Amino acid sequence: MHAKTVRSLSVFFPCYNDKGTIGVLVQEAIATLREAGITDYEVIVIDDGSTDGSRELLREMEKSAPALRVIFHERNQGYGAALRSGFAAAKKEWIFYTDGDAQYDVKELKLLIQTATEDTDVVNGHKISRSDSLTRIIIGKLYQWGIRFGFLLAIRDVDCDFRLIRKAKMDAIRLVSNGGSVCVELVRRLQNVGSVFAEVPVHHYRRVYGHSQFFTFRRVGAALLALSRLWFLLVLLRRAR
């Protein structure tokens, strides 16, 4: 473990109707940070207008977990907006985030911490295998290939929301996306400010509670339009802010 590299850490989870998983994720995150020897930490949940009881659960957890801070969006604003709120709220030297649906094992955060060095700015997970339907796996592979080629990305799995990022690099960029295209925007903007990336294989699990909000014609169409705009700004003009 590179104890001198990751000294303080903000962990945050975007949450939208994840009542069945978010509580366990928070508890496992705190336990994992302690096991990794991180004593200066905070855990943040961004509730993006949940309606399934997540908000009530989080309010109760906040009373008994001093390290937990919850930020509530009064209405659902989208995945990108939830990430922007999380990054804005994070106060520590490093920031880790993953989704509140528990498709990634938060205990594998230790692998990212162990990989971080003084020369690394971002440690990005990449899925060992994707636990989704065959249709989603095929669409995902085509998407990954197209995005990596079109945006000239330095990592293999931009869709893997299991990331450890140096806060100083986040402070150098400004995210604008509200939807799922925020992941591409995040990685490309970090590249544009000279971030050094490392990658770690992580497991991906089937969703056990709730359902994906992305795979609808309306959302996919909106994402494609947003990606076109981002390509112009980030690749053609190479803007970071």
Give the topology, please.
Layout: E1 8-15, H1 19-35, E2 40-48, H2 54-64, E3 68-73, H3 79-89, E4 94-98, H4 109-115, E5 122-127, H5 134-151, E6 162-166, H6 167-170, H7 182-192, E7 197-202, H8 217-236
Parallel strand pairs: 1-2, 1-4, 2-3, 5-7
Antiparallel strand pairs: 4-6, 5-6
Helix pairs in contact: 1-2, 7-8
Quick overview of this protein structure:
With 241 residues, the protein is an alpha/beta fold. It has eight helices and seven strands, in the order βαβαβαβαβαβααβα. The chain starts with 7 loop residues before the first strand and ends in a 5-residue tail after the last helix.
Number of domains: 1
User: Quick one: CATH superfamily?
Assistant: Spore Coat Polysaccharide Biosynthesis Protein SpsA, Chain A
**Rg from alpha-carbon coordinates:** 17 Å
Percent of residues in helical segments? 40-55%
Strand order of the largest sheet: 3-2-1-4-6-5-7
Q: What characterizes the major β-sheet? A: 7 strands, mixed
Percent strand equals 15-25%
Quaternary state, please? Answer: single chain
The secondary-structure element order is EHEHEHEHEHEHHEH
**Mean pLDDT, rounded to whole units?**
89
Low-confidence stretches: none
Alpha-carbon distance between the termini? 33 Å
From the coordinates shown, what is the CATH architecture? Alpha-Beta Complex
Give the helix tally.
8
Q: SS-based structural class?
A: alpha/beta
The 3D shape can be described as globular
Tell how many strands the DSSP assignment holds: 7
